[in-house]
Amino acid sequence: MDSTQNYLLNLLIEIDTICKKYDIEYFIDYGTTLGAVRHEGFIPWDDDIDINMTEENYYKWVEACKKELDPSKRVYGDNRLDRDFPGTFGRYIDVESLRISSHFAFWKPICGQSIDVFYLLELPGDPVKKQEMIDLYFAYDEYANSSYRHYRYKNDAQMKLYNKFCRMEKFMGKERVLRKLEKQLFNKHYDDCDTYIVTSARKYGPSSIAPKELYDTVYYADFEGHKFPISGRYAEMLTYYYGDNWNFLPNEKKHHSKMSHSGISCDDYVSDYMRLIDEKSMKKERQKAKHILVEEGYKIGKYLDLVHEKLGELALMKIEKKIKENNIDLDSLLDPSSPEKLATLDSIFSDYYERQLHSSVYYWENYLDIGERYFYAAVFNLIYTRNNFSAANKILNIRIANGYQPDEKFKKLWDVVLTVRKIKAEMVYKNYDEAEKLICEAIEKYPYQKEVQLYALEIKVVKNDFEGAEKLLEELTPKYPDEYRLKKALGDIAFSRGDKETADKYYDDIMKNSNNGLLHLDIRKKRGA
Questions:
Q1: pLDDT digits over 311-363, tens only?
Q2: Which residues contact 463 (CB under 8 A, 6 or more apart)?
Q3: pTM across the whole model
Q4: Alpha carbon distances (Å) from 243 to 176, 210, 212, 421, 496
Q5: Alpha helix positions (H), 31-126
C-alpha cells in the first residue's frame, strides 16, 4: 500500500469498529469490493474506499457517529446534517488530514481524507411507481446539492421535477422544499421491493440502481490482511456493476483525487484561502452556474438523441450495403460451428460496434437503431465470434433503456450469457460440484461457445482430471492459441505433478502478458503456498 491507501485502511478499520459496537451491518462496495476479490486488497492504483448499507442501518450509523466522533479529529458529512455538503450520500472525514478534489476544495470539512458512505433506498416493485420514485430521487439529488452536479443528462420527467423544485423554492424557501421531498423519499418500506437506489447517484442504471438480492447476504473477504464484509453475491454484483470482464485489469487506471496529503489539516488548508473569498457570494455564483449547466446538459441530451438517430441510420445503411455488395444470406451466417461464417458475420458489424460501444454513446444511453433482425445478429456475433459478453451486455442495456422488450428468440440467445455468468459465479465461489453440473449442461446446449469450452477445461483441472484436461487442450489449443486460460491449465497440471519449472514458465508468461486479474491472484497464491 502507498501512504494514502494505508491512511484509508485505518479509517475503514475505525468504521468497522463502530459498526461492530452498534450492530450496524455494512458492505465495502464498488471498487473496494473489486479490489477485495481481484487483489485481496486495494486495486493497486486506487485511492478510494466506498461502503454501503441499508437505509435502516444508515440511520443507526449516523446516530453512532454523533456519539463516537471527536469533531476535532473526525466529522461525518451528509446533506441532511449540513445543507452545504455536496452529496445526498455521506462521508466519514478525517479533518486532521488533507485530500484535495476539484469538486470539494472550498467546503471546510469535506477535503480531509475520507470514505464515502452510500445507502440503499427501497423502491416499489410496481414498474410505474418504481420509475416515479427513481425520477423523484434523481431530481431531488440534483436539487439538494448546492453546486455540484451528480447526474448530468436527465430525462424529461427528471428535468421537469428539477425545474418544479426551483420554482417552489421562490415561495417556500429551499429548506422547506427539501424537507417536503425528503418525506416522500426516505424511510419508506415496500413489501414488493426488488430494487434499491444506491445513493451514489452517478448515473441512471447500473451503479445507482441495484437488484435487492445483491445485498441480501454477507461474505467476509480478505482485504489487506483484514476481513471486511462484502456482498454475499459478489460475483454477480461485480458483473452487474462492472460487466462480465470485471476480473480483467483495465487499460485505463482511474484515480479520484488530484492530491492527497496527510501532514496538513483541512482546517489549515481551507482557512488559508477562504479568508480571501466572499463565501456567500461565491456560493451564490456557483448555484447560478449550476442551474445553467443542468439546463445545458438537458439540451445536450436532447441533441444527442437526434445525433444518434442519424448515426443509427448511417450504421444501418453500411450494414445493408455490405450484405448487398457481397450477396450475403445473413441467417446462414448464424452458425456457431463454422469459424468461416462467423468471420464473415463479424465483418458486417465492425463499424456498428465501434460507434455503439463508444463510451459517450453508452454513458448517455443513446442507441443506434439498426432494427430487430440486425440487432439480434450483432449480439449473436458478440457472444459467439468475439466472445465479448461485456459488449453484448452494454448493447442490450442501451436498447432496454430505450424501451426494448426482448422477445423469446432473443431470450434464448441471451441464455448463453446467463448460463456462463452462473458458471463463472460458482467457479469464483469455489462451488465446483455445482459448477461442473452447469458446465455439463452448457456443453450439451452450447458446445461451440468459447467460454463454455474454457470452463469445461478449467473444471477438469480443478477436479484433477488431468487426462481429460489434456485431451481437451489438444482440441482447444489450435482454435485459441493465444488464450492464457489454456496456458494456466497447462501450468496448473504441471504444478500438480510437481514439475515446478514447467509450471513457472507458463505462470511467468501469464503474469507478464495476461491482464486476467483472477489468474494473477491464483498464481501468486500457488507460489506463496
A1: 999 999 999 999 999 999 999 999 999 999 999 999 999 889 988 887 554 44
A2: 432, 436
A3: 0.92
A4: 41, 14, 18, 10, 32
A5: 31-39, 55-68
